[in-house]
Design goal:
GO terms for molecular function: protein-disulfide reductase activity. By secondary structure, this protein is an alpha+beta fold. The chain has a single domain, classed as Glutaredoxin (3-Layer(aba) Sandwich), CATH 3.40.30.10. 37% of the residues lie in helices and 22% in strands. The protein is built from four helices and four strands, in the order αβαβαββα. It has a four-stranded mixed beta sheet. Helix 2 links the parallel strand 1 and strand 2. It is globular and about 35 Å long. The termini are far apart.
Length: 95
């Protein structure tokens, strides 16, 4: 699987978590991201994928982005409550 097939080519909204293992705030929201990953897609190690992180202007992690039809629709930066992530995601999920 590639970025192209998982995110850009997806017909469904995709949640992408830009993170790094050394990032304290990333570890703080990890349990929330794992929980949300059961319903939504995506986790990208910014250290291992600097080209993609740079392409989307990632300057701070954690940054969680919502993509729909291959386009960035929204982003949440920092360790935020689960409710903030869920409300951001739900704006783009059609049920």
């Amino acid at each position: 699987m590639t970025w192209q097939s998982l995110v850009v080519g997806s017909e469904m909204p995709v949640l992408v978590d830009f993170w790094a293992p050394w990032c304290g705030p990333c570890r703080m929201i990890e349990p929330t991201i794992v929980k949300l990953a059961k319903a939504y897609e995506g986790k990208l190690n910014a250290d291992s994928n600097p080209d993609i992180a740079s392409q989307y202007g990632i300057r701070s992690i954690p940054t969680v982005m919502i993509f729909r039809n291959g386009e960035k629709k929204d982003a949440v930066i920092g360790a935020v409550p689960e409710s903030t992530l869920v409300s951001t995601i739900e704006k783009f999920v059609v049920r």
